[in-house]
Amino acid sequence: MATWLLLVGCTSTPLTPEPPPVVFPDSAVSFRLHVQPFLRQGCAFAGCHSSASRAGGVALEEYAQLWERPGLVIPGVPEQSLLVQLLEGQLPHLPDLRARTTENQRRGVRRWIAEGAQNN
Questions:
Q1: What angle do CA 40, 12, 1 make, to 5 degrees?
Q2: How far is CA 46 from its chain centroid?
Q3: pLDDT (tens digit, 0 to 9) for every residue of the chain, 120 residues total?
Q4: How far apart are the first and last CA of the chain?
Q5: Do 102 and 91 contact (CB within 8 A), yes or no?
Q6: Which of 10, 37, 73, 80 has the fewest CB atoms within 10 Å, i.e. is most exposed?
Q7: What is the 3-class SS of the chain, one letter each residue?
């Protein structure tokens, strides 16, 4: 009986639907509208880089947290920013971020950094 009750509560579908993927514009990328939701959805809410878990000492929920790790974001220089290198698969990361993100998302983060990585 106890086993049966335990299994009745299980479901293969999540209780809350997964939010749609973040789509970045071609210009004027906003931290609050694009980058933050992207980082929260894929990095922080996944349980790895939340303020509580801080995998590798990195949290990615708030703008100020991006500056806690030197080199993670270098405004105006996306190719030297560790975040871009990780997203594009130039640096190892588990899970593979290049496989888990779209070209639009990688380009959008790169564009936001190229535009100065503003808290906008």
A1: 130
A2: 9
A3: 444 333 333 334 445 567 789 999 999 999 999 999 999 998 887 789 999 999 999 999 999 999 999 999 999 999 999 999 999 999 998 888 899 999 999 999 999 999 999 999
A4: 55
A5: no
A6: 10
A7: CHHHHHHHCCCCCCCCCCCCCCCCCCCCCCHHHHHHHHHHHHHHCCCCCCCCCCHHHCCCCCHHHHHCCCCCCCCCCHHHCHHHHHHCCCCCCCCCHHHHCCHHHHHHHHHHHHCCCCCC
Give this prediction's pTM.
Answer: 0.82
- The answer to whether residues 109 and 25 touch, using CB atoms and an 8 Å cutoff, is no
Residue 53: how many other CB atoms lie within 10 Å: 13
